[in-house]
Amino acid sequence: MVVSENTLKWAMRFYPPLLFQRVWVQKVEPGFTGITVTISNSLLNRNYNRSIFGGTLFAAADPFYPVLLHQLFSHKGYNVIAWLKSSTIQYLKPVRSKLWFSIKLSNSDVKAIEHDLKHIGKHVEHYPVEMYNDTGELCVTINNEVYLRNLDFVLQKEAVQ
């Protein structure tokens, strides 16, 4: 489904797996080139040590690269599918306050992905997510491997044979 930046922001805010984990989308950048997200420490996502549960942090980083890439390339007219292929996480410091992270896609990133979609039909890449607490300390690093496929590329390739 192709939506506007504002619609995506509100849909992700009220998406139950994120809403109940206190994950809140602050802003979606124009053209789906970035997103800013906060995670609140609350009774709903607090662990035994009163820090944010690690699963919440992992879940918070899960959907955003695939969703942004899907929307960005769908708006460019591509018929794509995107998902998180794999992910690794490092907990560097317990998080007892609000946490935030931003994701940005540069023009060169978008051009490289578009080249792969046109010529290979797919793009697989690792993207970092760094989460910071209220004082700006790096608390969590995540490495997401995202898979993006141009569904029309497969059809064009089969039509040629």
Automatic annotation (TrEMBL):
Cited SUPFAM superfamilies:
Thioesterase/thiol ester dehydrase-isomerase
Question: In its UniProt entry, what is this protein called?
Answer: YiiD C-terminal domain-containing protein
Kindly give the InterPro entries that the UniProt entry links to this protein.
DUF4442, HotDog_dom_sf
Gene3D superfamilies assigned = Hotdog Thioesterase (3.10.129.10)
> Which source organism does the UniProt entry give?
Mucilaginibacter roseus
